[in-house]
Model the fold of this input.
Amino acid sequence: DKSDDESEKDNLQIANKAWGKKYFTPIIFTILILAYIIQNLFIFEALATYIPLMVIIAFVGMYGPSFDFKFLSNNKFKAVVFIIFVILLLPAIYIFNIKPVNANIDFIKAMIAPSDTPIEQRIAAYENVLSRNTQGNQEYRRYLVDYYNNIISQWIRDSKLQEAYPADKMATITNSVEKEVENQLKENGHSVSNYLLAIRFYEMASVFDPSRLEKAKQAFDRAKELSPGRPQVYFEGANVHLYLANYYKYLKDQNKVDNSYVSAADLVYEGSTKYYYKENAVNDFLSIISNLSANKEFADIIVKRGIAGKSISQITSEVKSWIDESSVDQAQKQAMTDNLKVFINTFLTLDPGNKDLSAQLLQLSK
Done:
């Protein structure tokens, strides 16, 4: 016979094993669910992220309460279920398999159509696919809008294309694409990428109706509301104001031109501050503002009015602090510092009497 101590030890081991079977696995999968939630704080709009969630939920379901439904073993019930299954199987196969496959095939045909295919024919091909209302419609429209934006970009520069497609004809095509953009937002009004898509469409389509730039601003406001920490949203908003500046320039309203330039610069700065990694903030801010400053009119108003209510010297001082806070090695910090010196030099040529910029440049050159 076992001693009392040995029996107690055996009982404890059995209890530990039972605890492990009952609690350990659920705890592990609870942690996995928490990991999934944390993952979704950083990864957006990817259907693949739902796969592990479904697997985890299915596994957790194994630990739920079990019920003994005796009617499930009834042969008559099984026969009824089988008949219903067969009846529903054929339409289900069509809706969930055949219909999407056919839509995808026609979508690919629309994508790879020869370059000399008439524009209205390509647009009609996309619209035909979209009319089937499959789960791929959101993705199909993105390709439709990308195609449209490329065509308009060519149309603006190509006189021969303008002859083949006069403005009124292109305006009609634009209206049909705009309806699909609106449908995109109606179907999923909580997707930031949909609003960014709408912004780019409205910018390009504004060549036929400048009032679309107001729609672009509204799309930016909504995108900012949905994702206030996403730098790209602010950069797209800045681009809207650059389009507005060109429109106001056409109207010869210099005050609105200047205000639009300042708003664009402010949004570039605001977007740059949203980066977690300061090196990204430095690189994007210096790159975008430097490119925009190639337009002397933009650079002049920035020198005069500053960015985000700060003078250029205050901005460059802040950028230097971003460099110091960045997580890159010394060589990369030096490269960013060199870019900052070029940036300061650019504005010193516009404002040679700026003592603060001169002092900063001297300090950086040491």
Notes: The longest helix spans residues 75-111.
